[in-house]
What does this fold into?
Amino acid sequence: MNFLNSKYLFKSPLSILSLSLLANCIGGFVFANSAQAQSFTLDFGDAATGFDGSGNVTLGDSLDANLLDGAGQTIGGTPFSTTTGNVGNIFDPIGITITSGNTVGLFNSVCTPFSPSGAVNNSAPSGAPICEPGGNNNGDDDLATGNITNSSGGQLFNTTPQGNLLIVEEGAGNGVPDDRGSGTLNLSFAQGSVLENVVLDSITFVDDVRATVTVNFTDMTSESTVIDFRNANPITSGVGTLENGAEFVAGDNAVGVIGGFDDMRNVDNLSIAFSSSGGIGEFAFSEFTPVPFEFSPGLGLLLSGVGLFGLKIAKRKKSANKLEL
It folds into this structure.
């Protein structure tokens, strides 16, 4: 028998009571988001808009580092810029807020070097911005990534292009992204409200970075790593390992992936305190799980009420039919 056939649907009080109970169950349980633990890489190429039904991060507009440091970029109806000082809020929809005692900015590392004269970034697309227009105070050749040769074709360095880097901005609003050379970047995670579990896998740094990475966990413990990318072995102290040792070349324009963080504890927040020039290409998380979405029990009760209302109507109709007989 086809229960959904209009011949039977809502004709029987028992069927309506069953629908009422089913509606209550649906309201309480079926609409819960049973998202599994997901990995995620925050690479600053695109804005984040939230999570899909499986707990995966959904991405939005491509981020323009030069616009963000100049006229600003509107994302989802909200204008962001280094002048406003809200670039670090672009990832709020996925529970990540980035702050600094200075200004949070981005730098397009796939750029054309300003010096030496005639240098070419073979990884940069046509029309790529110049890394350091106007001299040392307005940009950073040493944050460039990719395959860069000099005017004679000699190899200056060859690294994996990193795209946009997260930096502490020096000249907010001047339209020329430039790292400050020092300062601290803080990442906080909306634990309990947006995120359920965050496990840090690695951080990719660019340039001859000197910095201290401090990771604070939800169990009130912490761990630190001190790095110095002027050295072939850049781990100065603390936890941490160099994960791309075969490709790592110390000094300006170095690209190093630092891992070895505790993979058994949930991260509450972390900070990177720079004492030199440097940028961050990405944060890789082995687990990045949103809080499960639970459907409001009120809607279950509402659906249940609708079913009971239908049951009452059915009983009235049944009584009326008896009187007609």
Notes: Residues 208 and 251 are 5 Å apart (CA to CA). The first helix runs from residue 13 to 30. Helices lie at 13-30, 65-68, 297-324. Residues 1-11, 19-23, 25-34 have pLDDT under 50 and may be disordered.
